[in-house]
Amino acid sequence: MQVSMTVNGQQRTDEVEPRMLLAHHLRDNLGLTATNIGCDSTSCGACTVIVDGLSVKSCTVLALQVEGGEVTTLEGLAGEDGELHPVQAAFQSEHGLQCGFCTSGMVMASVGVLAANPSPTDREVREGLEGNLCRCTGYHNIVRAVLKAAEAGPVAGQVPQRSQEVSA
Amino acid sequence: MSILGTRVVRTEDPQFLTRGAVYTDDLTDERLTGALHATFVRSQVAHAKVLSVDTEAAKTAPGVVAVYTAADLTDLPPLAPPFPFIAAEFERQWLCTDTVRFVGDAVAVVLTEERYQGEDAAEMVVVDLDVLPAVVGTANAAKDETLLFPAAGTNVLAAFGEPAPADFFDGCEVVVEQAVVNQRVAPVPLETRATSAVWGEDGRVTVWCTNQGAQQAKGQIADWLGIDAGLVHLVTPDVGGGFGAKIGADPEYALIAHLAKLSGRPVRWTESRSENLTSMLHGRGQDQVVKIGGSRDGTVHAYSLVTDQDGGAYPRIGVVLPTLTMLMTPGTYAFPKVHAQARVLATNTTSIGAYRGAGRPEATAAVERAIDLFAAEIGMDPAEVRRINLVPAFDEPHATPTGATYDSGDYVAALDRALEASGYAELRAEQAARRERGDVRQLGIGVSTYVEITGADNGAGTGEEAELEVHPDGTATVLTGTSPHGQGHATTWAMLASDQLGIPVEKITVLHGDTDRIPKGGGTMGSRSLQQGGAAVHQAAVELVELAKKRAAERLEANPDDLVVDLGTASLTVKGTPGVSVSFAELAAEEALLVQTTFTAAAATFPFGAHVAVVETDVESGKATVVRIVTVDDAGTIINPLLAEGQRHGGIAQGVAQALLEEVLYDEDGNPQTSTLADYPFISATELPSFELVDMATPTPMNPLGAKGIGEAGTIGSTPAVQSAVIDSVAHLGVRHVDMPATSMRVWKAVQAAQAGAQTQNGSTN
Asked: Bridge partners of B352?
C-alpha cells in the first residue's frame, strides 16, 4: 500500500506492507537510522519521534497510521543552518549521552516533555521520561540536560518549522 | 594549564545528536547490498530431547532463501568449553542436534530476503521435542539427579578452593551465618546483538558486529570456525552499550559468517529484545553463604564466603567469575583469617557472563552484608564496625590473604568523606525520630565500602597498543586497541595526545575496532581502557615529541635538549629564542611523523570508595524508595571529570537496579518469566534520585597517568549500600536480612515474618 507523510520537512510517498511499523519505515525505507529500536514491547522509547507535534514511540505505530502526517526525527531537529536544537545542545554540554543508543528517542521525548511543560522540575522531568530507558547515564545528566534546555524558553519544546517542499 | 583534568565535552556528540551513531544494524556498506536477513528458531522448552526438526513448510514461505539446521553444519566442529579446565563433554552444538538445554537454545536459522519474512518463516519450522525435567537453580543442579550433559557425569562445571578448616571460627565470641542470593540479572545494553558478514573474492570474510573488543572477537570467530585468523576482517561499528555482555564474540556472530559462506550472499542479523533477554549472556547469579566471626568490641577475626555460581546451560565467561569473587573476598577489611570457595553449576537457563563488575560486586555485596549482620548481632553502628576493621591507609602495596596486592588506598578517609557528606549523624537522628513516632515512612541508611580490581591480566597481559600520527594539515590520528561503547574514548584519548602536542582535541581523530588497521588490542572491559589504552596514547605522544625534537633539531640547528613544545601553536621552539620554531605539521610535511608503541602496566589497580544510600520505606506496603545516594569513588587521577562522573552515574544506577528491582526469573520448568522489557523491571528515571558525588583521588603508581578504572566502581559500591539501607529501614521491626532485589513484596514479607516471629517468641515466653 502507498503511504504519504512529511518527514523532516520533506514529502515522502512510499510503498509499504500494511503491517510495517513506522520505526522500520523510517529506518529501512527512508534511511533515517538515528531512530533506534531497543525493544519489542513499547518499553524503551529508543524509537521516539515527533508525529504531528506529539512524541510517540514509532515501534507502536504503523506507517499507514501516519498517512498525511508530519514526522520529525532526530535528523530533522537541528536548524537548517546546522545549529543544534536547545535539547541537542544541552545533551552535549551536560554529557547526557554515552553509548548514544537511547539518545535519539531521549532527545525527542525531552522535546515532548518541554512542549507540555516548559519549566519542569527535576521530578517532572523524570516522570516525563519514564517511558525512555537508558542503561549508561543513570539518567542523572539526562535530567540535567533537559533542565538546562528549558532555560532556552519555549523553543526547547518545539520542532523546527521547515518550508514545505511541494511535490509536483 | 594542562587540558588533563578539565571538563571537555565529547567530540563524538555532534554526530550522535544530529545524525545518530552508526550501529551495526544501521550500516549501509555497499558490500551489504542485497544482504539476507537471518532469523533464529530457538527452543521454547528448557530441557528436551530433539526428535526432529522439520523445515519443509518454512522453506516454501515467501522470501525464504534457505533454512539451516545442525544437519547442514557437519563441517563445523562443536564449540569446545572456553577454558581448558572444563571437561570436554560440556561442549555445545552450533544448532541443537539431540538436546535443547535452555529456552533460547538455537535450533535452526532462516535466511530471508526481507526482515519481516524471517519471523513468518521461523514460526513455520516444526521442532518435535521430548521434554526432560529442567534443572533450575544451583541447589537443584548440585543434586546431580538430572544431568545437562550425561556424558560429563555431573552438573559441576568447575570447582575452586577447599572447605574451611573445622576450627576456622574457634575463639570467636560471636559468629553469624547467612545464606545470601546475588541474583541473576540481565545486562540489557540498549543495542541488542547484531552482526553482518560478507565474503570477498579474496577468500576473506568481513564481519561487522557489536562488541567490546574487535581483536578478541575476531580471534574467537576464526577459532570457532576453524579458519586462519588472517581470513577474518572484523569491524566494530558504534556500539550501543556493552556492560560486559559484549566481551568477545558470541557463537551467533560466527555462525552468521559461516552462513554467508554457505548461502553465497551477505547476511545480517539483529536480534529482537525478547530474543536478547533469553539468549544473550546474563550476569551475577550467585548463591552465597557468608559466615563471619569476631569479638563484641567490633573486631572481626574470621570471614568465610562459599559460592555456588549458576553457569547456565553452556560454560561461558561466568565460569571464571567466582575466582574474581574469591580474590576480592576480604574487600577493604584487614580480617586476619579469610576463606573463599566456589563451584560453578550447569542449569537449564541462559548462560552467565560478565556484567558490570563481573565477580567483584558479588564479593563486595557478600562482605558488606556480613559486616552488617555482625554489627547488628553485637549492637554496634555498622559504620563504626567498618572503621574498626578497615585496612589502614597504605602507600606500599598491601597483600591480602586471598592473594591480591592492592596498589594504594585510604579506605578510612573514603568512609569518613562519605559519612560527612551524607550528614550521617543527622540521618541517624532523623531515623531515630521516625522510629520513635512510628511513622509509616521509615528511614533506612546503608553504608558500604569497597575495593575492586581493574586492569587485571585476563590472560592477555596488561599491555595495550597505540599509534599516533600528525598530518601535514595539522590534524592527528590516534589508533587504539581499546574499544568505546559509550565511555568517550574519542574525547579522552584526544585529550591525552593534545596534552603533549598542543593540537586541539577537535583536530584529533581516534580510530578503533578495525582489525586490519589495528591488528592488536585488548578491547574495553574490566575498567582497563584508560589505565592501559589511555596510558599507551600518552606514551605515544611523549615518544612522538622526542622523535619530532630530533628532526626539528636538524632543521633549527639546535640541540634537541633545548627544544620545548609550545602547546599554544603545536610546535617546537628553542628555549629562550622565541620565534625560532617549527610546528609538528611542518615536520610531518617533510616526513611521516608517526609513532607506534606498546604500554605495559606494572600491574592491576584497585579503585576504592564508600557509598551511603538513604531510602524511605513504606512499612505498610514494603515499598522502598531511594532518596539519596552519596558516593566517594577514588579511581586515582581523573583525566576528564565530566566523563568520569558519567561512568559513576551509570554504575550507581545499575547497582540500585540490582538492589531494588531487577531479576531474571524462571519458573520451575525453566520458562523465563522476564523475557521482554515489559516484564523485566529495567530501572527508569523515576526510580532514581540525582546522585551526590564526592571527589577523592589517590593516584596509582602502576601507570604514568596515575589512573585506575572507573567503569564499574559505581555498581560495586551502590548495590550493597542500597540493599543495606532497605534492611536498615525495617531493622527496628526485627528484620535482619532481605535478599535482592528488595522488592515491595519481599520487604513486606520480611516485616510480616519478623513480627510473627516476635509474637511467637513473646507467646512462648509468656
From this structure: B282
> Which pLDDT score, from 0 to 100, does residue B606 have?
98
pLDDT of residue B276: 98
CATH number of the CATH domain containing B682: 3.30.365.10
The cell for B263 is: 548461502
- Which pLDDT score, from 0 to 100, does residue B763 have? 46
B612 and B571 within one domain: no
B698 phi/psi in degrees, rounded to 5: -110, 100
pTM of the model: 0.97
* Residue B394 near residue B401 (C-beta atoms within 8 A): no
Q: Which of B96, B117, B132 is at the close of a domain?
A: B132
Among B17, B191, B718, which would you mutate to test the A interface (most chain A Cβ atoms within 10 Å of its Cβ)? B17
Instruction: Tell me the C-alpha to C-alpha distance, in Å, between residue A27 and each of A21, A63, A73, B273.
Output: 10, 11, 11, 17
Size of interface A-B (CB pairs under 8 A): 183
Closest CA to B389 of B414, B363, B411: B411
Judge whether B400 and B411 are in contact, CB under 8 Å. Answer: no
So what's the pLDDT on residue B459?
79
Q: Which of chain B's residues have a Cβ under 8 Å away from the Cβ of A20?
A: 116
Query: First vs last Cα of chain B: how many Å apart?
Result: 75
Q: Do residues B332 and B390 lie in contact, with contact meaning Cβ atoms separated by under 8 Å? A: yes
Q: What are the b/e assignments for B7-17, b being 16+ CB within 10 Å?
A: ebbbbbbbebb
Phi and psi at residue A16, in whole multiples of 5°? -135, 155
Q: How far is CA A52 from the centre of its chain?
A: 12
Count of Cβ atoms closer than 10 Å to residue B31 Cβ: 15
- Pick from B240, B649, B676: CB nearest A137: B649
The β-bridge partners of A6 are A11, A70
Instruction: Break chain B down into helix, strand, coil percent, rounded to 5.
Output: 35, 25, 40
Classify domain A2-74 by CATH number.
3.10.20.30
The predicted structure's pLDDT at residue A166: 45
Q: Is residue B590 classed as helix, strand or coil in its secondary structure?
A: helix
CB-CB neighbours of B161 under 10 Å = 18
Residue B220's φ and ψ, nearest 5 degrees, are: -65, -45
CB B631 within 8 A of CB B694: yes
CATH for the A86-157 domain, from 3.90.79.10, 1.10.150.120, 2.60.40.2470, 3.30.450.20: 1.10.150.120
Residues of A in contact with B10 (CB under 8 A): 92, 95
Q: Which of B600, B629, B656 is the last residue of a domain?
A: B600
- Spell out the SS3 assignment of B103-158: CCCEEEEEEECCHHHHHHHHCCCEEEEEECCCCCCHHHHHCCCCCCCHHHCCCEEE
Name the residue range of residue B753's domain.
283-454+604-760
Q: What is the pLDDT of residues A112-121, one digit of tens each?
A: 999 999 999 9
Q: Checking DSSP bridges between strand B126-131 and strand B99-100, what pairing results, if any? A: unpaired
Query: In this complex, do A138 and B116 lie within 8 Å of one another by their Cβ atoms?
Result: no
Q: With beta carbons under 8 A apart, name residues in chain A contacting B22.
A: 33
Phi, psi angle pair for B113, to nearest 5°: -65, -40
With residues binned 3-state (H G I as helix, E B as strand, rest as coil), the percentages for chain A, rounded to 5, are 35, 15, 50
All residue ranges of chain B with pLDDT < 50 are: 763-766
H or E, element range at A128: helix A122-128
Residues of A within 8 A of B113 (CB-CB) are none
d(CA B279, CA B347): 14
Nearest to A101 among B28, B191, B273 (CB): B191
Decide if pLDDT at A164 tops 70.
no
